[in-house]
Specification:
This protein is mainly beta and 229 residues long. 14% of the residues lie in helices and 45% in strands. Strand 7 and strand 8 form a beta hairpin. The protein is globular and about 55 Å long.
């Protein structure tokens, strides 16, 4: 009997499974969430993969956030509101740095990117209300002479896209234009925020309409990355 009493607390603790991760759901779409550096969190979204639809990770701020894993489980919680509802996907991410970042996801069939049934986007460690823009870290480079853009951006994971300042009354904002010129072809780590849109030109068929540029601290790891760009 004494042995049973001694082991009981251990058995109870073993079944607890550790602290529950913070969960972000569909009601949090286009919201900001503050999560401490080094902590993990989950995005839980309604889904039914038997229909062929599933959530795809379209974009995230590389070097700041890291995807850990994704799971799917059947559930009777959802009965309407999403094409093929009937289960949920659980995506786990980790915060690598305490910097403003974003996650963008689309609910679609993997083989048909033209038909998107639902969208989901959140910012992490940003400012409330600024989640309409995406955040990237990297460097600005001058484009080749035959390019559709004067400049392009290279993010820390090597992704490239064309770069254009946002317009006021159809005129490119002069402040953003001067900031782009200031940092073009410099080994400077930048935080750029703006709207990413599809475009038929080069740079992976995308362009970023810049609304904000900030110089960020250049760590040794990032420094090595920029030298390779």
């Amino acid at each position: 009997m004494k042995k049973f009493i001694w082991l009981l607390p251990i058995l109870i603790l073993a079944g607890c499974g550790g602290p529950k991760l913070q969960q972000i759901t569909m009601v949090d779409n286009k919201q900001n969430h503050n999560i401490t550096e080094g902590n993990s969190f989950q995005i839980v979204l309604p889904s039914n993969q038997t229909t062929g639809y599933k959530w795809e990770l379209v974009d995230l701020t590389s070097g700041v956030l890291e995807k850990v894993k994704e799971d799917y489980k059947v559930s009777t919680k959802y009965s309407e509101g999403v094409v093929g509802a009937g289960g949920e996907e659980i995506w786990t991410f980790k915060v690598l740095k305490d910097e403003r970042s974003h996650i963008v996801m689309e609910y679609r069939r993997p083989w048909d990117k033209s038909e998107v049934a639902n969208n989901f986007m959140v910012t992490i460690n940003g400012n409330p209300g600024d989640d309409g823009f995406l955040t990237y870290f990297g460097a600005i480079k001058s484009a080749p002479d035959d390019s559709a853009y004067d400049d392009y951006f290279v993010s820390e994971d090597g992704t490239e896209f064309g770069l254009m300042p946002y317009k006021i009354d159809y005129i490119a904002d002069p402040g953003i234009k001067s900031r782009i010129a200031e940092f073009t072809d410099k080994d400077t780590r930048l935080e750029v925020r703006g709207e990413l849109v599809e475009d038929k030109a080069e740079h992976q068929g995308k362009k970023l309409i810049i609304h904000e540029i900030r110089e960020r601290e250049l760590s040794s790891r990032v420094g090595r990355t920029l030298l390779k760009i």
